[in-house]
Structures are given as C-alpha cells and as structure tokens.
Amino acid sequence: MESLKGKTAIVTGASRGIGKAIAVKLAELGANLVLNYRSDSKSVEDVIKEIESKGSKAIAVQGDVSIFSDAENIVKKAVEVFGSLDILINNAGITKDGLVLRMKEEDFDKVIDVNLKGAFNCIRHAAPVMVKQKGGKIVNISSVVGVTGNAGQINYSAAKAGIIGVTKSAARELASRGINVNAVAPGFIQTDMTEVLSDKVKESTLNSIPLKRFGSAQDIANMVAFLVSPSADYITGQVINVDGGMVM
Ligand code: NAI
C-alpha cells in the first residue's frame, strides 16, 4: 500500500473497533493521526501508544461529533498541531435498535444526530481546510443496512442511507476542488457493537454471507486505506460494500 507520510488524518470514534483499526492502519502507512473520542480516554491513550510504537504521531481530541462546535474543534486541533488536514474518516456511530411500533422518539433522534449529522458536522468544518489546501480525501462509514434496510433498525438504516446521500452530494460539490468523497458500507463486522447481538441473529446473519465468515475491523481498514491513497484518485461518490458478498 502507498505511503501516507506527511498526511494528517482525522478518525472519529477512534478509541475502539473499526475506528481504531483504521487509525492504526493509516498510522502504519505513515500518516499523522487525530483520534477523536467521546469519553473513553483510557482506551484512546492505548491507541496513541500503539501508533507511536509504529513510529507515527497521534493526538487525541475529545468531542461529541453530533455537536457542531465539537466537530469544529477537532478540525481546528488537527490544523494547529500538524499544520494540515488531508484525510477525514467519519466513523463514529451508535445503534439504538427497536421496532418501529415501539421506538422512542429520542432513540430515533439520537442515532440520526450521531451517525448522520455527525458526519455532516465534520465535513462542514474539514472541507474548507481541504479546499484551501487544494485537495483531500473523505471516507464516510455507512452500512449495508443503509442500502437494504433492516427490521429493528429504522433509525440506524435511515442514518446510514443518509450518509450515502451526504457522500454523493459532497462528492459532486467538492470534486472540482480535488477532494474525493466515498462511503464504505460494512456488512457484519466483529466489534463491541455487534458482540451484543443474540446468537440467533448472529447465526442467521452468517448464513446470509457467501464468504461464510464475519468481517474484521481490519477488512474495513484495508478498504479505507486504499480509498485515501493516490491509487484511488479517480474514485469519488462511490459506496463500496465490504461484506463478504452479503449484498450484491
Ligand atoms: P463501536 O461501538 O465499537 O465503535 C464506535 C465508536 O464511535 C466508539 O469508539 C464510540 O465511542 C464512538 N462514538 C459514539 N458516539 C460518538 C460521538 N457522539 N462522538 C464521537 N464518537 C462517538 O462500533 P464499530 O463496530 O467499530 O462501528 C464503527 C462504525 O462502523 C460505526 O459508524 C458503525 O455504525 C459502522 N458499522 C459497523 C458495523 C459492524 O458490524 N460492526 C457494520 C456496519 C457499519
């Protein structure tokens, strides 16, 4: 994979799971990392140590991506400390599952606020910096359920479908400025988020995956590393499924 030496990358929700794997991967390729986290400062310190042991630099910036001014601060810190912002990975996400007949209004709003508005907030603040620098790469983490829908996830699948709209609109607006915007739609990835699901759900999901295994955070990090590299300069506005063939 091509070197990202000298590039600065923000990863939101980088304290664990897919965000952590993406951050470590980009650091292995030489990028300086800005690790956004919401509350788990201990875990994010461990991620910093792991990145530093690979010879790259990382800082942690606390912030809730659903808050406009927090997103502004994450971008500001990146530019202050590393002098540029080349890569933004909108990874932070939550689930609050429930059937539509029972879902509470606040559970709908919260999931939209973090997953969808959070991505907008970060792009809104990062894009002007990238425009000034005449280039950048943005990757938004969507989900296969944003494409297919999913019973019990009306809030989450709406947010993840929304991310696809955000990706395509931003890609169209920012292409002339040398900024590529793409989305990755993971299938079922083994992380804390999916650990809580019942064995029954896990088993029936596994049966729907042609490659017959759950994905790893590494599988997603590999695709993100490609999309932010010069090899992907001619790719924008795309949604790439990384799902073992679950959706095709
Ligand atoms: P996770 O729950 O392990 O990690 C999510 C991270 O986001 C955590 O570090 C959490 O602290 C952070 N976060 C949550 N709310 C935040 C906020 N308001 N501000 C800043 N950070 C916040 O989940 P996982 O599995 O690593 O998911 C990462 C992304 O991938 C999410 O967007 C998720 O929706 C998406 N995804 C995951 C799939 C899976 O099977 N695990 C499948 C499809 C998409």
Could you explain the architecture of this structure?
The chain is built from nine helices and seven strands; from the N terminus they run E-H-E-H-E-H-E-H-E-H-H-E-H-H-H-E. The relative contact order is 0.15. The longest helix is centred in the middle third of the chain and has 29 residues. It has one domain: Rossmann fold, CATH 3.40.50.720. It has a seven-stranded parallel β-sheet, with helices on both faces. The structure holds 1,4-dihydronicotinamide adenine dinucleotide. The site of 1,4-dihydronicotinamide adenine dinucleotide has 28 residues, from helix 1, helix 4 and helix 7. 1,4-dihydronicotinamide adenine dinucleotide (NAI) binds next to helix 1, helix 4 and helix 7.
Question: What is shown here, in short?
Answer:
Helix content is 48%, strand content 15%. The protein has 248 residues and is of the alpha/beta class. The longest helix is centred in the middle third of the chain and has 29 residues, at 105-133.
Number of domains: 1
Present as ligands are: 1,4-dihydronicotinamide adenine dinucleotide
Q: Order of strands side by side in the largest beta sheet?
A: 3-2-1-4-5-6-7
Shape: globular
| Overall helicity | 40-55%
Secondary-structure arrangement, i.e. CATH architecture: 3-Layer(aba) Sandwich
The profile of the biggest β sheet is:
7 strands, parallel
Task: Indicate the mean pLDDT.
Answer: 98
Structural class: alpha/beta
Q: Can you count the helices? A: 9
**Poorly predicted sequence stretches spanning 5 or more consecutive residues:** none
Distance between the termini: 26 Å
The percentage of residues in β strands lies in 5-15%
CATH C-level class is Alpha Beta
Q: Compute the gyration radius: what is it? A: 17 Å
User: CATH superfamily, called what?
Assistant: NAD(P)-binding Rossmann-like Domain
In total, the number of strands is: 7
As for the CATH topology, it is Rossmann fold
Order of helices and strands: EHEHEHEHEHHEHHHE
